[in-house]
Amino acid sequence: MTKEQINRLLSKGVFPDHSGNRELIETHISWVIISDPFVYKIKKPVHYSFLNFSTIELRKHFCMKEIKLNKRLTEHIYLGVQPIRKWQRIFIIGGNDGTIVDYAVKMNKMDREKQMDNLLLRNKVTACDIKSLAEKTAFFHKHTNIIFKKKDLHEIDKKFNDLKGEKEYLAKRLGNKYRHIISHAIEDSDLFLEKNKKLLISRMNKGFTRDCHGDLHSKNIFLLPEPVPFDCIEFNDDFRQIDVLNEVAFLCMDLDAFGKQDLSDLYIRYYNQLFHTIKTRQDYALFTYYKAYRANIRAKVNSLRAKSTKNKTDKTKALGMAKKYLLLMDSYLESLRATKLIKE
After folding, report:
1. How far apart are CA 252 and CA 129, in angstroms?
2. Is the N or the C terminus of the chain less surrounded, counting Cβ atoms within 10 Å?
3. CB neighbours of 185 closer than 8 A, spacing ≥ 6?
4. CA-to-CA distance for 69 and 144, rounded, in angstroms?
5. CA triplet 24, 229, 116: central angle to 5 degrees?
6. Rounded to an integer, what distance in angstroms lies between the CA atom of residue 111 and that of residue 113?
7. Which of left, alpha, beta for 154 (phi over 0: left; psi -120 to 50: alpha)?
8. What residues have CB less than 8 Å from 67, skipping those under 6 apart?
9. Helix/strand/coil for 214
10. Each residue of 280-339: pLDDT tens digit?
């Protein structure tokens, strides 16, 4: 579908249920229509280096895959895949009339006030919540598929070093200090990966590379009050089939970014008691490196957001977030430097 067709669906489309108060949320890869009591997620017809939604057959395939993968961690959110039909000039979700023009993932509408990121802002996330989340993710990681394919370490290297493309833009807007932070971070990442290549391969051989969630951070978790992680990555298996430390490092980095290092420390400590994946000093160093890697990615994403928006307020906010993640990335790498786990 096109943006114009989505707007027509939103304003005059026929839904299979009472759907008042329709609201559209747009990301770079999907349109999400929030109504009462359901949510419909429609994939954009886009083709990037990391995903391909360019045909209706591919979009249907990934809608089905999204349902299957997310049901591993949710019970009542993901309901099924609905065809979107066009009859005369009317777009219809579900039903039997008209020609199928696309597909939508149908979900129950959840209370956004119960999203973990919103609760963190209000200091409503407790130690009990964190322990419950650690229990759920540890159980999931223990039982999800082990991936024994050899991981290309260059992929991590390449993703980390992608930040170089944002260096001049960010330095011009945030200050020369950030040019040096990015340059040093890329150098340190290269050294760390080279020095720890055997560790990464050993962990994969020991079964720590698993079919994970792939995008585990507070915005993708409901606390109802039981934790419900949702919106896992379906469009690229390599983004999801990762070392479990890479997965939990994202969540812990996110908690650190909220200023909740106590919750971050509690989470990884309790998780590791339940699923013993950090056994050595080198394992913990890798966990810290993965936190730096995840902060790097968030800094890059916010730099790209700042570049793409014309709204001054949104641009300022995105640059502020990029600055925060760069400083967080640097703090993780500094801790590795201090313990001589990057440089001899």
Report:
1. 14
2. C
3. 160, 163, 292, 296, 329, 330, 333
4. 11
5. 75
6. 5
7. alpha
8. 78, 80, 81, 105
9. coil
10. 999 999 999 999 999 999 999 999 989 988 899 999 999 999 999 999 999 999 999 888
Residue showing tokens 């020991």: 206
3-state secondary structure of 211: strand
What kind and span of H or E run contains 296?
A: helix 281-308
* Alpha carbons 323 and 317: distance in angstroms, whole number: 10
Q: Which two tokens stand for residue 259?
A: 């200023």
CB-CB contact of 24 with 31 (8 Å): yes
Q: Find out whether 107 and 93 touch, Cβ atoms under 8 Å.
A: no
- Separation CA 225–CA 13 (nearest Å): 35
> Distance (Å, rounded) from C-alpha 325 to C-alpha 67?
32
The reply to whether 280 falls in a domain is yes
Q: Looking at the structure, tell me whether residues 122 and 214 fall in a common domain.
A: yes
Amino acid in position 125: V
As given in the structure block, the two tokens for residue 146 are 């082990």
State the SS3 of 234-282.
CCCHHHHEEEHHHHHHHHHHHHHHCCCHHHHHHHHHHHHHHCCCCCCHH
Tokens 């280096």 appear where?
A: 49
149 and 252 inside one domain: yes
**CA 282 to CA 160: how far, in whole Å?**
20
Q: Are residues 128 and 83 in the same domain?
A: no
- 16-54 pLDDT, tens digit per residue, is 887 678 999 988 899 999 998 899 999 999 998 889 999
pLDDT digits (tens, 9 = 90+) for 71-85: 999 989 999 999 999
Q: Tokens 């479990």 map to which residue?
A: 244
pTM as predicted: 0.93
State which H helix or E strand residue 150 sits in. none
- The span from the CA of 126 to the CA of 128, in Å, is 5
Q: Assess whether 11 and 99 both reside in one domain.
A: yes
Point out which residues pair with 85 in neighbouring strands. Answer: 92, 100
